[in-house]
Design goal:
This protein has about 100 residues and is of the alpha+beta class. It has one domain: Arc Repressor Mutant, subunit A, CATH 1.10.10.10. Helices cover about 60% and strands about 10% of the residues. The chain has 6 helices and 2 strands; from the N terminus they run αααααββα. A two-stranded antiparallel ribbon has the order 1-2. A hairpin with a 2-residue loop joins strand 1 and strand 2. Helix 4 crosses helix 5. The two termini are about 25 Å apart. The model has no long low-confidence stretch (mean pLDDT about 90).
């Protein structure tokens, strides 16, 4: 934490990560990807959200560097680009109002 107190560039990078996660659908996508790779159709089905919206939010997550994809059999399979996001989501779950 000492570095963060004195390093505005590092603080800005972390703020960008938090901004990317600050949309409920993007947060849910990242939470699902914590379980492993998925394509847009699988994510849309799991989140009960239209594929177009999932694709739009995946684009934002890709641009932020949090998610990456690979092509396989005509599909794009998405996964977390930063595995430590799993830890962050666990922390956020514990920090929520009324959380344990």
């Amino acid at each position: 934490m000492a570095d963060l107190k004195h390093d505005s560039a590092r603080a800005a990078e972390i703020a960008d990560i938090l901004k990317a996660l600050s949309h409920a659908t993007r947060l849910m996508i990242v939470a699902r990807l914590c379980d492993g790779e998925a394509n847009v159709g699988e994510l849309a089905s799991c989140l009960e959200t239209p594929q177009a919206l999932v694709s739009q939010q995946l684009r934002i997550l890709r641009m932020s560097g949090l998610v990456e994809f690979r092509r396989q059999g005509g599909f794009a399979l998405y996964k977390l680009a930063k595995p430590h996001l799993v830890d962050l989501l666990h922390c956020l779950e514990r920090c929520r109002s009324g959380g344990d």
